[in-house]
Protein backbone atom coordinates (compact mmCIF):
# COMPACT_ATOMS: atom_id res chain seq x y z
CA UNK A 1 0.00 0.00 0.00
CA UNK A 2 1.34 3.46 -0.90
CA UNK A 3 1.55 5.95 1.92
CA UNK A 4 0.95 9.46 0.60
CA UNK A 5 1.53 12.66 2.51
CA UNK A 6 -0.65 15.43 1.07
CA UNK A 7 0.09 18.91 2.35
CA UNK A 8 -2.59 21.61 2.25
CA UNK A 9 -5.34 19.04 1.65
CA UNK A 10 -8.02 21.24 3.24
CA UNK A 11 -7.55 23.99 0.65
CA UNK A 12 -9.20 24.36 -2.73
CA UNK A 13 -7.13 22.11 -4.99
CA UNK A 14 -5.88 19.87 -2.17
CA UNK A 15 -9.39 18.90 -1.07
CA UNK A 16 -10.42 18.08 -4.64
CA UNK A 17 -7.24 16.00 -4.95
CA UNK A 18 -7.73 14.07 -1.69
CA UNK A 19 -11.25 13.08 -2.71
CA UNK A 20 -10.12 11.98 -6.18
CA UNK A 21 -7.04 10.10 -4.91
CA UNK A 22 -9.03 8.08 -2.35
CA UNK A 23 -11.39 7.09 -5.17
CA UNK A 24 -8.76 6.41 -7.82
CA UNK A 25 -6.09 4.73 -5.65
CA UNK A 26 -7.79 2.04 -3.56
CA UNK A 27 -4.37 0.79 -2.45
CA UNK A 28 -3.24 4.04 -0.88
CA UNK A 29 -3.25 5.50 2.60
CA UNK A 30 -3.43 9.26 2.68
CA UNK A 31 -2.21 11.60 5.42
CA UNK A 32 -3.30 15.22 5.09
CA UNK A 33 -1.07 17.72 6.89
CA UNK A 34 -2.74 21.13 7.00
CA UNK A 35 -2.27 24.11 9.27
CA UNK A 36 -5.85 25.29 8.67
CA UNK A 37 -4.96 28.86 7.84
CA UNK A 38 -7.87 31.08 6.76
CA UNK A 39 -7.77 29.16 3.42
CA UNK A 40 -7.98 25.70 4.97
CA UNK A 41 -11.51 24.52 5.55
CA UNK A 42 -11.91 21.01 6.96
CA UNK A 43 -15.56 21.06 5.86
CA UNK A 44 -14.21 20.67 2.34
CA UNK A 45 -13.50 17.05 3.25
CA UNK A 46 -16.40 16.37 5.63
CA UNK A 47 -17.67 13.57 3.35
CA UNK A 48 -14.47 11.50 3.56
CA UNK A 49 -13.11 12.34 7.01
CA UNK A 50 -14.15 8.94 8.44
CA UNK A 51 -12.54 6.93 5.64
CA UNK A 52 -10.16 4.46 7.39
CA UNK A 53 -7.51 5.12 4.71
CA UNK A 54 -7.47 8.84 5.56
CA UNK A 55 -5.82 10.68 8.45
CA UNK A 56 -5.97 14.41 9.08
CA UNK A 57 -3.08 16.02 10.94
CA UNK A 58 -3.40 19.61 12.04
CA UNK A 59 0.05 21.13 11.73
CA UNK A 60 2.54 23.38 10.03
CA UNK A 61 4.80 22.16 7.20
CA UNK A 62 7.56 24.38 8.62
CA UNK A 63 7.72 22.30 11.83
CA UNK A 64 10.60 19.94 11.10
CA UNK A 65 10.03 17.76 14.17
CA UNK A 66 6.36 17.14 13.31
CA UNK A 67 7.09 16.47 9.63
CA UNK A 68 9.94 14.08 10.51
CA UNK A 69 7.71 12.22 12.97
CA UNK A 70 4.99 11.80 10.31
CA UNK A 71 7.48 10.38 7.82
CA UNK A 72 8.53 7.77 10.39
CA UNK A 73 5.08 6.94 11.81
CA UNK A 74 3.42 6.59 8.43
CA UNK A 75 6.38 5.32 6.36
CA UNK A 76 5.64 7.99 3.83
CA UNK A 77 6.83 7.11 0.31
CA UNK A 78 5.03 9.84 -1.66
CA UNK A 79 4.48 13.54 -1.11
CA UNK A 80 2.00 15.67 -2.99
CA UNK A 81 2.81 19.17 -1.83
CA UNK A 82 0.00 21.74 -2.18
CA UNK A 83 0.36 23.71 1.05
CA UNK A 84 1.08 27.35 0.31
CA UNK A 85 -0.07 30.86 0.75
CA UNK A 86 -1.78 31.22 -2.62
CA UNK A 87 -3.37 34.65 -3.06
CA UNK A 88 -1.38 37.23 -5.02
CA UNK A 89 -3.17 40.26 -3.48
CA UNK A 90 -2.37 39.04 0.05
CA UNK A 91 1.27 38.56 -0.95
CA UNK A 92 1.40 42.22 -1.96
CA UNK A 93 -0.11 43.37 1.36
CA UNK A 94 1.83 41.00 3.65
CA UNK A 95 4.60 38.94 2.01
CA UNK A 96 6.26 37.45 5.12
CA UNK A 97 3.99 34.43 5.48
CA UNK A 98 4.51 33.62 1.79
CA UNK A 99 8.25 33.46 2.31
CA UNK A 100 7.85 31.30 5.40
CA UNK A 101 5.34 28.74 4.17
CA UNK A 102 6.17 28.61 0.48
CA UNK A 103 9.95 28.61 0.78
CA UNK A 104 10.83 27.38 4.28
CA UNK A 105 7.89 24.96 4.29
CA UNK A 106 9.02 23.36 1.03
CA UNK A 107 12.59 23.21 2.32
CA UNK A 108 11.40 21.48 5.53
CA UNK A 109 9.54 18.83 3.53
CA UNK A 110 12.52 18.25 1.25
CA UNK A 111 14.79 17.83 4.25
CA UNK A 112 12.40 15.36 5.89
CA UNK A 113 12.21 13.34 2.67
CA UNK A 114 16.01 13.41 2.29
CA UNK A 115 16.48 12.09 5.81
CA UNK A 116 13.78 9.44 5.48
CA UNK A 117 14.50 8.21 1.97
CA UNK A 118 18.26 8.39 1.65
CA UNK A 119 20.18 5.76 3.60
CA UNK A 120 23.00 8.28 3.92
CA UNK A 121 21.37 11.72 3.63
CA UNK A 122 24.69 13.37 2.78
CA UNK A 123 25.25 11.31 -0.36
CA UNK A 124 23.55 10.58 -3.63
CA UNK A 125 22.72 6.95 -2.84
CA UNK A 126 19.74 5.72 -4.84
CA UNK A 127 16.39 6.45 -3.24
CA UNK A 128 13.92 3.56 -3.06
CA UNK A 129 12.33 3.09 -6.49
CA UNK A 130 8.77 3.78 -5.31
CA UNK A 131 9.38 7.18 -3.65
CA UNK A 132 8.13 10.42 -5.24
CA UNK A 133 8.12 14.10 -4.20
CA UNK A 134 5.53 15.94 -6.30
CA UNK A 135 5.66 19.71 -5.96
CA UNK A 136 2.56 21.60 -7.10
CA UNK A 137 3.51 24.94 -8.58
CA UNK A 138 2.18 27.68 -10.80
CA UNK A 139 2.63 29.24 -14.24
CA UNK A 140 3.14 32.60 -12.50
CA UNK A 141 6.82 31.74 -11.99
CA UNK A 142 7.38 32.51 -15.69
CA UNK A 143 6.22 36.12 -15.38
CA UNK A 144 3.94 37.88 -17.82
CA UNK A 145 3.31 37.46 -21.57
CA UNK A 146 2.41 40.03 -24.20
CA UNK A 147 -0.34 39.37 -26.73
CA UNK A 148 1.39 36.32 -28.18
CA UNK A 149 3.45 33.33 -27.05
CA UNK A 150 3.12 30.56 -24.48
CA UNK A 151 4.99 29.44 -21.37
CA UNK A 152 7.01 26.29 -22.02
CA UNK A 153 8.94 24.22 -19.46
CA UNK A 154 12.09 25.87 -20.86
CA UNK A 155 10.81 29.46 -20.43
CA UNK A 156 13.17 31.35 -18.08
CA UNK A 157 11.75 32.17 -14.67
CA UNK A 158 10.74 35.81 -14.18
CA UNK A 159 8.39 36.00 -11.16
CA UNK A 160 6.93 39.44 -10.53
CA UNK A 161 4.90 39.24 -7.30
CA UNK A 162 5.98 38.15 -3.82
CA UNK A 163 3.71 35.11 -4.30
CA UNK A 164 5.25 34.03 -7.60
CA UNK A 165 8.77 34.78 -6.35
CA UNK A 166 8.19 32.52 -3.35
CA UNK A 167 6.85 29.74 -5.59
CA UNK A 168 9.78 30.16 -7.98
CA UNK A 169 12.15 29.86 -5.06
CA UNK A 170 10.49 26.64 -3.92
CA UNK A 171 10.68 25.25 -7.48
CA UNK A 172 14.42 25.93 -7.51
CA UNK A 173 14.89 24.16 -4.17
CA UNK A 174 13.01 21.12 -5.47
CA UNK A 175 15.15 21.07 -8.60
CA UNK A 176 18.34 21.47 -6.53
CA UNK A 177 17.41 18.51 -4.32
CA UNK A 178 16.97 16.37 -7.42
CA UNK A 179 20.30 17.38 -8.93
CA UNK A 180 22.29 17.30 -5.69
CA UNK A 181 20.80 14.40 -3.75
CA UNK A 182 18.97 12.43 -6.42
CA UNK A 183 15.62 13.23 -4.79
CA UNK A 184 12.88 11.72 -7.01
CA UNK A 185 11.06 14.98 -7.67
CA UNK A 186 8.30 15.95 -10.07
CA UNK A 187 7.10 19.53 -10.50
CA UNK A 188 3.89 20.73 -12.12
CA UNK A 189 3.38 24.36 -13.17
CA UNK A 190 -0.29 24.96 -13.65
CA UNK A 191 -2.50 27.80 -14.86
CA UNK A 192 -5.49 29.28 -12.97
CA UNK A 193 -7.82 26.69 -11.48
CA UNK A 194 -11.54 27.06 -10.83
CA UNK A 195 -14.30 24.79 -9.54
CA UNK A 196 -15.88 23.57 -6.28
CA UNK A 197 -14.46 24.71 -2.89
CA UNK A 198 -12.59 27.68 -4.40
CA UNK A 199 -12.14 30.29 -1.66
CA UNK A 200 -14.18 33.41 -2.48
CA UNK A 201 -11.26 35.81 -2.43
CA UNK A 202 -10.19 34.63 -5.90
CA UNK A 203 -11.81 36.09 -9.02
CA UNK A 204 -14.34 33.43 -10.04
CA UNK A 205 -15.81 32.49 -6.63
CA UNK A 206 -15.73 36.15 -5.52
CA UNK A 207 -17.72 37.23 -8.57
CA UNK A 208 -20.21 34.36 -8.17
CA UNK A 209 -20.86 35.11 -4.50
CA UNK A 210 -20.97 38.90 -4.89
CA UNK A 211 -23.25 38.66 -7.92
CA UNK A 212 -25.63 36.37 -6.01
CA UNK A 213 -25.78 38.87 -3.15
CA UNK A 214 -26.19 41.88 -5.47
CA UNK A 215 -22.84 43.34 -4.38
CA UNK A 216 -20.47 45.19 -6.69
CA UNK A 217 -18.10 43.18 -8.87
CA UNK A 218 -14.55 44.61 -8.74
CA UNK A 219 -12.59 44.25 -11.98
CA UNK A 220 -8.97 45.38 -11.77
CA UNK A 221 -7.63 47.90 -14.31
CA UNK A 222 -9.19 47.66 -17.77
CA UNK A 223 -10.34 44.05 -17.25
CA UNK A 224 -8.31 42.90 -20.24
CA UNK A 225 -5.71 40.84 -18.34
CA UNK A 226 -5.78 37.29 -19.63
CA UNK A 227 -5.70 34.07 -17.61
CA UNK A 228 -5.83 30.47 -18.83
CA UNK A 229 -8.47 28.58 -16.84
CA UNK A 230 -8.26 24.88 -15.93
CA UNK A 231 -11.11 23.04 -14.22
CA UNK A 232 -9.81 21.76 -10.88
CA UNK A 233 -10.71 18.11 -11.53
CA UNK A 234 -8.62 18.17 -14.72
CA UNK A 235 -5.72 19.53 -12.68
CA UNK A 236 -6.09 16.76 -10.09
CA UNK A 237 -6.22 14.09 -12.81
CA UNK A 238 -3.02 15.55 -14.27
CA UNK A 239 -1.28 15.37 -10.90
CA UNK A 240 -2.18 11.69 -10.57
CA UNK A 241 -0.91 11.06 -14.10
CA UNK A 242 2.40 12.78 -13.35
CA UNK A 243 2.70 10.91 -10.07
CA UNK A 244 2.16 7.56 -11.76
CA UNK A 245 3.97 8.06 -15.06
CA UNK A 246 6.03 11.26 -14.90
CA UNK A 247 9.79 11.12 -15.44
CA UNK A 248 11.67 11.79 -12.24
CA UNK A 249 13.39 15.19 -12.17
CA UNK A 250 11.09 16.65 -14.83
CA UNK A 251 8.66 19.57 -14.74
CA UNK A 252 5.33 19.55 -16.56
CA UNK A 253 3.26 22.57 -17.58
CA UNK A 254 -0.49 22.14 -17.18
CA UNK A 255 -3.09 24.36 -18.79
CA UNK A 256 -6.70 24.37 -19.87
CA UNK A 257 -6.35 25.91 -23.32
CA UNK A 258 -8.97 28.40 -22.15
CA UNK A 259 -7.54 31.89 -22.40
CA UNK A 260 -10.06 34.53 -21.31
CA UNK A 261 -9.93 38.21 -20.49
CA UNK A 262 -11.10 38.83 -16.93
CA UNK A 263 -14.00 40.97 -18.11
CA UNK A 264 -15.19 38.11 -20.32
CA UNK A 265 -15.15 35.74 -17.33
CA UNK A 266 -17.09 38.22 -15.20
CA UNK A 267 -19.77 38.92 -17.81
CA UNK A 268 -20.17 35.18 -18.51
CA UNK A 269 -20.83 34.55 -14.80
CA UNK A 270 -23.33 37.46 -14.66
CA UNK A 271 -25.22 36.21 -17.72
CA UNK A 272 -25.37 32.61 -16.46
CA UNK A 273 -26.60 33.70 -13.04
CA UNK A 274 -29.28 35.91 -14.65
CA UNK A 275 -30.45 32.83 -16.59
CA UNK A 276 -30.30 30.46 -13.63
CA UNK A 277 -31.73 32.53 -10.78
CA UNK A 278 -33.25 35.52 -12.56
CA UNK A 279 -32.08 39.12 -12.81
CA UNK A 280 -31.50 41.41 -9.84
CA UNK A 281 -34.60 42.31 -7.78
CA UNK A 282 -34.82 45.69 -9.61
CA UNK A 283 -34.89 43.86 -12.97
CA UNK A 284 -31.39 44.94 -13.98
CA UNK A 285 -28.85 42.46 -15.36
CA UNK A 286 -25.99 41.51 -13.04
CA UNK A 287 -23.46 43.10 -15.40
CA UNK A 288 -24.71 46.43 -13.94
CA UNK A 289 -22.81 45.48 -10.76
CA UNK A 290 -19.41 45.55 -12.55
CA UNK A 291 -17.02 48.27 -11.34
CA UNK A 292 -13.56 48.89 -12.80
CA UNK A 293 -11.32 49.50 -9.79
CA UNK A 294 -7.69 50.38 -9.18
CA UNK A 295 -5.33 47.88 -10.78
CA UNK A 296 -3.29 45.31 -8.81
CA UNK A 297 0.31 46.60 -8.48
CA UNK A 298 2.56 44.78 -10.95
CA UNK A 299 -0.49 43.01 -12.44
CA UNK A 300 0.73 40.34 -14.89
CA UNK A 301 -0.95 40.98 -18.24
CA UNK A 302 -1.31 37.53 -19.75
CA UNK A 303 -0.62 33.89 -18.89
CA UNK A 304 -0.83 31.12 -21.50
CA UNK A 305 0.47 27.59 -21.29
CA UNK A 306 1.96 25.26 -23.84
CA UNK A 307 0.96 21.89 -22.35
CA UNK A 308 2.28 19.78 -25.23
CA UNK A 309 4.93 18.02 -23.10
CA UNK A 310 2.44 16.33 -20.77
CA UNK A 311 0.11 15.65 -23.68
CA UNK A 312 2.80 13.97 -25.77
CA UNK A 313 4.68 12.18 -22.97
CA UNK A 314 1.86 11.17 -20.65
CA UNK A 315 -1.26 11.47 -22.82
CA UNK A 316 -2.99 13.96 -20.49
CA UNK A 317 -5.54 16.39 -21.90
CA UNK A 318 -8.00 18.63 -20.09
CA UNK A 319 -11.51 17.22 -20.56
CA UNK A 320 -13.70 20.08 -19.30
CA UNK A 321 -14.21 23.11 -21.54
CA UNK A 322 -14.55 26.53 -19.90
CA UNK A 323 -18.21 26.72 -20.95
CA UNK A 324 -18.93 23.38 -19.23
CA UNK A 325 -16.66 24.06 -16.23
CA UNK A 326 -18.10 27.45 -15.42
CA UNK A 327 -21.65 26.04 -15.52
CA UNK A 328 -20.62 23.19 -13.20
CA UNK A 329 -18.91 25.67 -10.90
CA UNK A 330 -21.91 27.99 -10.69
CA UNK A 331 -24.20 25.00 -10.08
CA UNK A 332 -21.90 23.84 -7.28
CA UNK A 333 -22.02 27.26 -5.58
CA UNK A 334 -25.81 27.43 -6.00
CA UNK A 335 -26.07 23.97 -4.43
CA UNK A 336 -23.74 24.87 -1.56
CA UNK A 337 -24.97 28.25 -0.40
CA UNK A 338 -24.42 27.23 3.22
CA UNK A 339 -20.75 26.59 2.52
CA UNK A 340 -20.46 30.00 0.85
CA UNK A 341 -22.29 31.75 3.72
CA UNK A 342 -20.11 30.06 6.37
CA UNK A 343 -16.94 31.11 4.56
CA UNK A 344 -18.20 34.64 3.97
CA UNK A 345 -19.32 35.25 7.57
CA UNK A 346 -16.35 33.42 9.10
CA UNK A 347 -18.44 30.76 10.87
CA UNK A 348 -16.54 27.98 9.02
CA UNK A 349 -13.89 28.59 11.67
CA UNK A 350 -16.25 27.15 14.34
CA UNK A 351 -16.15 23.71 12.72
CA UNK A 352 -12.42 24.20 12.54
CA UNK A 353 -12.07 25.13 16.24
CA UNK A 354 -13.84 21.89 17.22
CA UNK A 355 -11.68 19.91 14.90
CA UNK A 356 -8.45 21.45 16.21
CA UNK A 357 -9.41 20.64 19.79
CA UNK A 358 -10.15 16.99 18.85
CA UNK A 359 -7.27 16.34 16.55
CA UNK A 360 -4.47 18.65 17.49
CA UNK A 361 -1.29 17.22 16.05
CA UNK A 362 -3.10 14.19 14.75
CA UNK A 363 -4.42 13.09 18.12
P1 LIG B 1 -5.46 27.36 -1.00
O1 LIG B 1 -5.01 28.69 -0.51
O2 LIG B 1 -6.90 27.16 -1.31
O3 LIG B 1 -5.06 26.23 0.08
C1 LIG B 1 -3.82 26.21 0.71
C2 LIG B 1 -3.88 25.17 1.84
O4 LIG B 1 -2.58 25.09 2.45
C3 LIG B 1 -4.88 25.52 2.95
O5 LIG B 1 -5.63 24.38 3.32
C4 LIG B 1 -3.98 25.99 4.09
O6 LIG B 1 -4.55 25.79 5.38
C5 LIG B 1 -2.74 25.14 3.86
N1 LIG B 1 -1.53 25.76 4.44
C6 LIG B 1 -1.09 27.02 4.27
N2 LIG B 1 0.05 27.22 4.98
C7 LIG B 1 0.34 26.03 5.58
C8 LIG B 1 1.41 25.58 6.41
N3 LIG B 1 2.40 26.41 6.80
N4 LIG B 1 1.40 24.30 6.82
C9 LIG B 1 0.41 23.45 6.46
N5 LIG B 1 -0.63 23.83 5.68
C10 LIG B 1 -0.66 25.09 5.24
O7 LIG B 1 -4.53 27.03 -2.24
P2 LIG B 1 -4.91 26.33 -3.62
O8 LIG B 1 -5.50 27.33 -4.52
O9 LIG B 1 -5.63 25.06 -3.35
O10 LIG B 1 -3.44 26.02 -4.18
C11 LIG B 1 -2.77 24.81 -3.81
C12 LIG B 1 -1.40 24.80 -4.45
O11 LIG B 1 -1.52 24.87 -5.85
C13 LIG B 1 -0.50 25.97 -4.04
O12 LIG B 1 0.80 25.49 -3.89
C14 LIG B 1 -0.59 26.92 -5.22
O13 LIG B 1 0.59 27.69 -5.35
C15 LIG B 1 -0.75 25.95 -6.37
N6 LIG B 1 -1.47 26.48 -7.54
C16 LIG B 1 -2.71 27.02 -7.39
C17 LIG B 1 -3.40 27.47 -8.50
C18 LIG B 1 -4.79 28.07 -8.39
O14 LIG B 1 -5.32 28.56 -9.39
N7 LIG B 1 -5.43 28.06 -7.22
C19 LIG B 1 -2.82 27.36 -9.77
C20 LIG B 1 -1.54 26.80 -9.88
C21 LIG B 1 -0.88 26.34 -8.76
O1 LIG C 1 -11.42 41.07 -7.33
C1 LIG C 1 -10.67 40.73 -8.27
N1 LIG C 1 -10.74 41.41 -9.46
C2 LIG C 1 -9.92 41.12 -10.53
O2 LIG C 1 -10.01 41.75 -11.57
C3 LIG C 1 -9.71 39.65 -8.14
C4 LIG C 1 -9.61 38.89 -6.85
C5 LIG C 1 -8.93 39.37 -9.22
N2 LIG C 1 -9.00 40.09 -10.37
C6 LIG C 1 -8.12 39.72 -11.52
C7 LIG C 1 -6.66 39.56 -11.19
C8 LIG C 1 -6.22 38.48 -12.15
O3 LIG C 1 -5.88 39.04 -13.41
O4 LIG C 1 -8.57 38.43 -11.95
C9 LIG C 1 -7.46 37.61 -12.34
C10 LIG C 1 -7.45 36.36 -11.47
O5 LIG C 1 -7.12 36.77 -10.15
P1 LIG C 1 -6.99 35.71 -8.95
O6 LIG C 1 -8.24 34.88 -8.90
O7 LIG C 1 -6.57 36.45 -7.73
O8 LIG C 1 -5.86 34.74 -9.50
P2 LIG C 1 -4.34 35.01 -9.98
O9 LIG C 1 -3.80 36.25 -9.38
O10 LIG C 1 -4.32 34.91 -11.48
O11 LIG C 1 -3.62 33.74 -9.32
C11 LIG C 1 -4.25 32.43 -9.32
O12 LIG C 1 -3.75 31.63 -10.34
C12 LIG C 1 -2.43 31.16 -10.23
C13 LIG C 1 -4.07 31.74 -7.97
O13 LIG C 1 -4.57 32.57 -6.94
C14 LIG C 1 -2.63 31.37 -7.75
O14 LIG C 1 -2.49 30.64 -6.53
C15 LIG C 1 -2.17 30.52 -8.89
O15 LIG C 1 -0.82 30.21 -8.77
Description:
The chain has 363 residues and is of the alpha/beta class. The protein has one domain: Rossmann fold (3-Layer(aba) Sandwich), CATH 3.40.50. Helix content is 43%, strand content 16%. It is built from twelve helices and twelve strands. Strands 3-2-1-4-5-6-10 form a seven-stranded parallel β-sheet, sandwiched between helices. Helix 1 crosses helix 7 (232-245), helix 4 (96-117) packs parallel to helix 5 (162-181) and helix 6 (203-213) runs parallel beside helix 8 (262-277). The longest helix is centred in the first third of the chain and has 22 residues, at 96-117. Residues 359-363 have low confidence and may be disordered. Thymidine-5'-diphospho-beta-D-xylose (TDX) binds at residues 86-88, 138, 140, 192, 202-203, 206, 218-220, 225, 227, 262, 296.
If classified by CATH, what would the architecture be?
3-Layer(aba) Sandwich
Q: Given the C-alpha coordinates, what overall shape results?
A: globular
Which cofactors or ions or other ligands sit in this model? nicotinamide-adenine-dinucleotide, thymidine-5'-diphospho-beta-D-xylose
- According to CATH, the homologous superfamily is NAD(P)-binding Rossmann-like Domain
What CATH first level would be assigned?
Alpha Beta
Number of domains: 1
Low-confidence region ranges: 359-363
Overall strand count:
12
Give the SSE order as H and E letters: EHEEHEHHEHEEHEEHEEHEHHHH
Mean pLDDT: 95
Strand content: 15-25%
